[in-house]
Design a protein that fits this description.
The protein is mostly helical. It is 86% helix and 0% strand. It has 4 helices and no strands. The protein is globular, with a radius of gyration of 15 Å.
Length: 99
């Protein structure tokens, strides 16, 4: 359950940081699927970032993840954590260059 909650929080933080980076002109979205949804509306982008982890939470409440599915969930959390670290690095770089 904690891993699913982490993904939900990480998704929201990722979405906000991505939004700030794109609006400021410092970064571009690297994921073509997300780039498509951003072009349509930021609302779609945020909905996807929130609904997918909520779906995982719902599935987990029905039946806890075990075996290889849990391994995939842990791998996803590690990957998402590295994305958040990457976001923090470019935010720090942006703040240092804009002063």
């Amino acid at each position: 359950m904690r891993l699913c909650l982490f993904l939900l929080i990480a998704g929201v933080v990722d979405a906000v940081m991505t939004h700030l980076g794109i609006v400021s002109g410092f970064v571009e979205e690297g994921n073509p699927v997300m780039k498509f949804f951003i072009a349509k509306s930021w609302s779609y982008f945020y909905l996807i970032k929130i609904i997918l982890p909520l779906t995982l939470l719902g599935l987990f409440s029905l039946r806890p993840f075990k075996g290889w599915i849990r391994t995939l969930l842990i791998s996803t959390c590690v990957l998402y954590f590295s994305v958040l670290v990457y976001h923090m690095v470019w935010m720090i770089l942006y703040l240092n260059t804009s002063s």
